[in-house]
Write a structure and sequence with these properties.
The complex is a heterodimer of chains A (166) and B (299). With 166 residues, chain A is an alpha/beta fold. Chain A has helices spanning 9-17, 29-32, 58-72, 95-104; strands at 35-41, 44-49, 78-82, 106-107, 136-140, 148-153, 159-163. Chain A has two domains: 9-82, 2-Layer Sandwich (GMP Synthetase, Chain A, domain 3), CATH 3.30.300; 94-112 and 125-163, no CATH class. Chain A contains four helices and seven strands. The two termini of chain B are 41 Å apart. Classes of the chains: A alpha/beta (166), B mainly alpha (299). The interface between A and B is medium-sized, with 30 and 33 residues.
């Protein structure tokens, strides 16, 4: 029996981490916090993803993209698992990811979801990603995708998406 | 006696299947899907459900699925574009909950979420009557939404600490999303009740029509009693639900007497046992026709 080739799991992790969100292509699934784990399970690359929202249609695309990316890099035995627990939160979004979002024209989450904001629930001002003004207004809690809400800037009058704290 | 087609039009099920397959092959041409494992479905948190837990998951999954299907109708028909998106987003969240719950329910019998959604007939569905109710005017959709989301919020909050790890994981994720749905329905309830005379009158009619389907949500039965300690007793969710609804109605300046009707009372609702309102059949026909017309089709 030939010795099993050694799996370069660190490389597999880098490949999986570079896969981008099909809806917000400036973010990788690692930036987004959707990539939870990459491990070597008896020679199989096992990637674990968690969906942002329960109904997010992008998760199937992300699974396929991870499989394709790893296959293209020469990995053969690959499995993608999904997990719902612990539930995804925007707290897992990387700082680099937040900066990329803002450059892309999407206002990033304003604070940590678990953060206590004192006795009176205040929603922090959302900064317009175009002109930087805090004079903005939520038009609708539900935006172009489940994870975003729809805002308008009262200073530059542009509409924009805001990645909801979740 | 059930109506029978004339003998010359009667065909064996196998012949019908063969014809469908031939037509499906023609309709789909030689399109092939890629080699990725398309059969793999979005799983829940893993785990195999016991028969009782599966039946319970079916109830919750069907509630979410049927309400999702109802809400999808509004896309392109809501009062404003933002509402198309809001109701579409809510429907999508509910579809996600339905997928996780039906997937889990199916682990007990080896059926997939699609098997359960598309290949069960009406008496096999376990949704409560509230979720089957027609969209009506926008106020009816909001009245249904405020009752549904306030109930789901209490349900998933309680279920998120279930000893069943899969139900707990699904619930912990769902509860964060249902909070948005409740917020949406509450804001619209206040807006319609406090808007024009017309909008207030319609909101009251909608609450009058929808309220009779509340009681069914909170009824304990043999299944929930057997699952005591694993899932919350439906009746235990009622006080918190009443408190939330009470606060919303007080702010909307609506008294319970404005929309409860002694003559109507509460519906007996047999949804948990497969006895459904007349509204479910047409909804299922529309939802299931494509999958049944083209069995096994993928794209």
């Amino acid at each position: 029996m030939a010795a099993a080739p050694v799996l370069d799991i660190a490389r597999a992790r880098r490949v999986a981490a570079a896969v981008v969100d099909p809806e917000v292509p400036v973010l990788t699934i690692d930036d987004l916090g959707v990539l939870r784990d990459v491990r070597d399970e008896a020679g199989t690359v096992v990637v674990t993803l968690t969906p942002t929202y329960s109904g997010c249609p992008a998760i199937d695309q992300m699974r396929d993209d991870v499989l394709l990316a790893l296959t293209a890099e020469g990995f053969r035995d690959i499995r993608v698992d999904f997990t719902l627990s612990p539930a995804w939160t925007t707290d897992w979004m990387s700082e680099a990811g937040k900066a990329k979002l803002e450059q892309f024209g999407i206002a990033p989450p304003t604070h940590r979801a678990g953060e206590r904001q004192g006795p009176i629930p205040l929603s922090l001002g959302v900064k317009c990603p175009r002109c930087g003004s805090l004079r903005t207004r939520e038009v609708s809690r539900f935006g172009s995708t489940a994870c975003k809400s729809h805002f308008e800037c009262l200073a530059c009058l542009e509409p924009f998406d805001h990645f909801k704290v979740h | 006696m059930s109506p029978q087609p004339p003998a010359n039009e009667r065909r064996s099920a196998a012949a019908v299947d063969a014809q469908y397959e031939a037509e499906a092959a023609e309709a789909h041409g030689d399109v092939t899907v890629d080699e990725l494992d398309l059969a793999a479905e979005l799983a829940g948190a893993g785990g195999t459900a016991s028969e009782d837990v599966a039946e319970y998951a079916l109830r919750l999954g069907d509630d979410a699925l049927i309400l999702s299907q109802r809400l999808g109708w509004w896309i392109s028909r809501a009062p404003e574009l933002e509402e198309d998106m809001a109701l579409g987003n809510i429907a999508l969240d509910l579809l996600g909950h339905a997928r996780s719950l039906l997937h889990y329910a199916g682990t007990a019998s080896g059926r997939s979420e699609d098997d359960l959604a598309y290949w069960r007939d009406e008496p096999e569905f376990r949704c409560a009557w509230l979720f089957q109710q027609p969209n009506g005017d926008f106020a009816h959709t909001i009245a249904r939404g405020v009752i549904a989301s306030a109930y789901m919020q209490e349900l998933y909050t309680a279920l998120s600490t279930s000893t069943d790890a899969t139900l707990a994981a699904i619930a912990a994720k769902a509860v964060k999303e249902v909070a948005y749905h409740r917020d949406h329905a509450v804001q619209w309830t206040l807006r319609l009740a406090g808007g024009t005379e017309e909008s207030r009158a319609r909101m009251l009619v909608a609450l009058t029509d929808t309220w009779p389907y509340t009681d069914e949500l909170f009824r304990d039965d043999a299944l929930t009693e057997r699952l005591a300690g694993v899932v919350p007793a439906p009746s235990s969710l009622r006080p918190a639900f009443d408190e939330v609804l009470g606060a919303v109605l007080a702010e909307a300046e609506i008294a319970e007497a404005d929309f409860t009707n002694r003559k109507i009372g509460q519906s007996s609702g047999g949804g948990r046992h497969g006895n459904h309102s007349t509204h479910l059949g047409p909804l299922l026909a529309e939802m299931q026709v494509l999958a049944r017309r083209h069995p096994g089709a993928t794209w």
